[in-house]
Write a structure and sequence with these properties.
By secondary structure, the protein is α/β, with parallel strands linked by helices. The protein has a single domain (2-381), classed as Aldolase class I (TIM Barrel, Alpha-Beta Barrel). The chain has helices at residues 2-5, 10-20, 23-30, 37-44, 85-88, 92-102, 117-120, 137-149, 168-173, 183-190, 193-201, 208-211, 224-231, 238-248, 260-268, 290-301, 316-325, 334-366; strands at 49-51, 66-68, 71-73, 77-82, 107-110, 127-131, 154-158, 252-257, 273-276, 306-310, 329-332, 379-381. It has an 8-stranded parallel barrel with strand order 4-5-6-7-8-9-10-11, surrounded by 7 helices. Strands 1-12 form a two-stranded antiparallel sheet. Helix 6 (92-102) runs parallel beside helix 18, helix 15 crosses helix 16 and helix 17 packs across helix 18. The termini are far apart.
């Protein structure tokens, strides 16, 4: 616990996670595609923009709450759905969900969750299910039906994984799901005894949304890129997306929108929200960052659909910049995954508390009492 108390920001949690995890597992969280240009750009893009504070605004009390997917949440950001969480810490999705519930913000559950919908439904906090569109349509339908039955609050369809990105770190480390123990990785697992003992002797690794239908990633080890490239339906079209929205009927989000044309199409098919996202720099390297693309998309569809800026966030100021530009909310994965790996539920709680404290402090320094007071007058871009 003392180590967690010394983690004052996301980079501190990253350093601690690197010490605790076997290297194939750490580099799966940490890595991106190809040369990782987009991975780096996702965070660096926020530094092109400066905040302009106002003073003497009476900022003793700060309200960070927003409304998203029809629900009031207490933070202007939420925890993006990420896969395979029990690989990072034995508490997995339950640790993340419990922390999100404590802070009253949305928790995203992946199709590649390592915890069942039944277990997750015991959490009272707001929940988003992230859907992958599989070749096996019965599998896709079963995921949606289970989320309906368990009364998940929103469905987010990921649309940027038609094929797997070239994640060269995973190729070098030999990362697969489930992990393969071989001569190449054995030393790393042996020098991470706490992780290895937890993996071997606690609840057996499983992907409950998949295991009733397929063996890949559950019984048979595969890379994530291989899973995307072989299991997901590369013929997915806008008509398929519209059918999913109609079948789901509730709040519906498209995750992985990066162009104004696609944003406009999302409005046309009746989506509730879009997540401007490049999958954390893990798919198309050389693509724009979500923050760089945010204004262009907002100019096209702002006010017609909820717009979420997803990825690259490492500081509360990054969230304030995106919302000042016009985003309805922000989200991210690594902002809590490093913390999960470093300390389970306690780590995620500490990470969320850090970000919340940053937001409160920075709102006061910016001269804003509530999120709705943020606007583009707070910002200046250095290249303009």
């Amino acid at each position: 616990m003392n180590q967690l108390l010394q983690c004052n920001n996301i980079n501190d949690f990253r350093s601690l996670a690197k010490k605790k995890l076997p290297y194939p597992i750490f580099h799966y969280i940490d890595g991106g595609a190809d040369d990782e240009v987009t991975l780096k750009r996702n965070t660096e893009s926020f530094e092109k923009c400066d905040l302009i504070p106002n003073v003497l605004r009476g900022v003793e009390n700060i309200d960070l709450s927003i409304k998203l997917f029809g629900k009031k949440i207490s933070l202007p950001f939420f925890l993006s759905p990420t896969a395979l969480q029990r690989l990072f810490h034995f508490q997995g999705e339950m640790a993340v969900g419990e922390a999100a519930e404590e802070f009253n913000t949305f928790f995203g559950i992946s199709s590649l969750s390592t915890v069942s919908a039944e277990e997750i439904s015991k959490l009272n906090g707001p929940k988003i299910f992230q859907l992958y569109y599989h070749k096996d349509k019965a599998l896709t339908k079963s995921m949606i039906d289970e989320c309906k039955d368990r009364k998940f609050d929103a469905l987010a369809l990921t649309v940027d994984t038609i094929t797997g990105g070239n994640r060269e770190r995973d190729l070098k480390t030999g990362f697969t799901s489930p992990p393969k123990f071989n001569l190449k990785s054995l030393l790393s697992y042996a020098t991470s005894p706490s992780w290895t003992l937890n993996y071997l002797f606690r609840k057996k690794f499983d992907l409950p949304f998949l295991s009733g239908y397929v063996g890949q990633g559950t019984k048979f080890a595969v890379s994530v890129s291989e899973y995307f490239s072989t299991m997901l339906d590369q013929s997915m079209s806008w008509s398929d997306v519209e059918e999913i929205r109609k079948y789901w009927k509730g709040p519906f989000c498209l995750k992985g929108i990066m162009s104004t044309e696609d944003a406009k199409n999302a409005v046309k098919i009746g989506a509730s929200a879009i997540m401007i996202s490049n999958h954390g720099g893990r798919q198309l390297d050389g693509s724009r960052s979500p923050f760089d693309q945010l204004k262009e998309i907002l100019d096209a569809v702002g006010g017609k659909i909820e717009v979420i800026c997803d990825g690259g966030i490492r500081r509360g100021t990054h969230i304030l910049k995106a919302i000042s530009l016009g985003a309805n909310a922000c989200s991210g994965g690594r902002l809590y995954l490093y913390a999960l790996a470093a300390g389970g539920r306690s780590g995620v709680q500490r990470s969320l508390e850090n970000l919340k404290n940053e937001l409160v402090r920075d709102m006061k320094l910016l001269g804003c009492k509530k999120i709705s007071e943020l606007n583009s007058e707070n910002l200046r871009f250095r290249n303009e």
